[in-house]
Specification:
Layout: E1 11-16, E2 22-23, E3 38-42, H1 44-48, H2 52-56, E4 88-90, H3 92-98, E5 104-108, H4 118-132, E6 136-140, H5 144-156, E7 160-165, H6 170-177, E8 182-186, H7 190-200, E9 209-211, H8 217-222, H9 225-234, E10 242-246, H10 251-265, E11 275-281, H11 286-293, H12 318-328, E12 331-335, H13 337-351, H14 357-371, E13 381-385, H15 410-415
Parallel strand pairs: 5-13, 6-7, 6-9, 7-8, 10-11, 10-13, 11-12
Antiparallel strand pairs: 1-2, 1-3, 4-5
Helix pairs in contact: 4-5, 5-6, 9-10, 10-12, 11-12, 13-14
Length: 419
């Protein structure tokens, strides 16, 4: 298989996030010097050549930012599912209820093709898989990634094999299975699934397989930057004062932060400061727990709770999420299942957006941070909703019933107090 990325890419190397060692662009995710995680390094001059006009004239998808991404410069290699350019909704009712004096925005990624932000990272990862010569695609997933990988693979006719904990929400299992790829349920949690995938990636039988969140993870993770690029463009090429994002591995939160830095460095937005806030479920909050304790090391936990898409007990990017939040002057918090359900209801009632449990976590943490005086309500705030509530409808279905059941008469309306 090929092991090179197109020469037109602004990406220059794979760079270790721990020791800074550099490696050629290829299917590699761990540093050979210290075993630290690798990420994409860029040619600063190449990024600086990207203009607002070039972006605005591009595809109405994440590929309008191809000049800021490691792959996809050749449209023929792109896995195009028209992901991205999702709504940025001004949430005035939510802002008023929580006591904000500055605008609050909801970045609603439930509007993506498989109804979660994972379509962003999968589009980039599968484009990288194409450029690197892989013939099959795979992943370990807590649900949304499984949906997206299976859907994208079916779109381009690439075989897929997806590994999930067997106790995922039924809607996510159905949505993955319907695309016709191979779906493997594992008797264990996500960390067990991820460990197996890491082992499989080292076998001869999987030599032709790109695991989007293992051997091509550096490219996969860059897809989350488009969440930051879009917000800046949708705000008229400026950055918000702060953002709140859910955390599973912690990668998305760090990549949004990276995207803001790259936009400033490339001269695409004015230089400014911003604060970063992270949200976790109390059933799986190793990053938020480390933050509260003042620790730099994240202690693994065994996940519980209804926010299964965030249930990564050993988060790979946890230390880097801690760094991003602390450096910005932000904070982290965790909320329990009842608070998550209330967060889902609060967002739906004030914005008309029905979020999955991860979105409930984020909104509930926003409310908690306001109540505790840990977030500045005078700063413009972006809240990331990463998935559709129909994926986790069981979490709130018990309290979502008809207001009344009546006979089809005016008398029935009066007796129910509706007239």
């Amino acid at each position: 298989m090929s092991a090179t990325i197109t020469a037109a890419s602004p990406a220059s190397a794979l760079v270790c996030r721990n020791c800074g060692a550099e490696f050629p662009l290829g299917p590699q995710h761990a540093c050979l010097e210290c075993w630290g995680p690798l990420e994409i390094g860029y040619d600063a001059d190449a990024l600086a050549r990207v203009s607002r006009e070039q972006i605005e004239s591009g595809s109405n998808s994440i590929w309008r930012y191809a000049g800021l991404l490691p792959v996809g410069q050749d449209p023929a290699t792109r896995v195009e599912s028209f992901t991205g350019m999702t709504p940025l909704i001004r949430a005035d009712e939510l802002a008023a209820e929580l006591g904000f004096t500055a605008p609050v925005w909801i970045k609603d990624d439930s509007a993506n093709p498989t109804h979660s932000f994972k379509d962003r990272v999968v589009s980039v990862a599968m484009t990288a898989a194409r450029e690197l010569g892989f013939r099959r695609i795979a992943c370990a997933s807590t649900g949304n990634l499984a949906n997206s990988v299976a859907a994208h693979a079916s779109r381009i006719g690439m075989p897929s094999i997806v590994f999930i904990p067997s106790d995922l929400e039924p809607a996510k299992i159905t949505q993955t299975a319907i695309y016709g790829g191979t779906l493997v349920g594992i008797d264990g949690n996500y960390d067990d699934v991820n460990r197996l995938c890491s082992e499989l990636g080292e076998t001869d039988e999987f030599e032709d397989t790109g695991f989007v969140n293992v051997n091509i993870r550096p490219y996969y993770a860059e897809g989350s930057k488009t969440l930051g690029f879009e917000v800046a463009e949708q705000l008229g090429w400026r950055l918000p004062g702060q953002y709140v994002a859910p955390m599973a591995s912690g990668s998305m939160l760090t990549k949004i932060n990276k995207s803001f830095k790259e936009l400033v460095a490339a001269g695409l937005v004015p230089s400014s400061s911003w604060k970063v806030y992270g949200a976790q479920s109390a059933g799986c909050s190793p990053i938020a727990t480390a933050f509260d304790a003042g620790h730099d090391v994240v202690q693994p936990v065994r996940p519980t709770g209804i926010a299964k898409s965030l249930n990564i007990g050993n988060p790979a990017d946890g230390p880097y999420a801690l760094d991003a939040v602390r450096a910005s002057g932000g904070a982290m918090a965790a909320v329990d299942d009842d608070e998550i359900r209330e967060g889902i209801r609060l967002l739906a009632r004030t914005t008309g957006v029905f979020a999955e449990t991860a979105g409930g976590v984020t909104v509930a943490v926003l409310a908690k941070l306001v109540k505790e005086g840990r977030i500045d309500t005078s700063l413009e705030t972006v809240v990331y909703n990463t998935g559709d509530g129909l994926k986790t409808v069981d979490a709130v279905s018990e309290g979502a019933r008809p207001t009344a059941v009546i006979k089809p008469t005016l008398k029935g309306m009066r007796e129910a107090g509706l007239l």
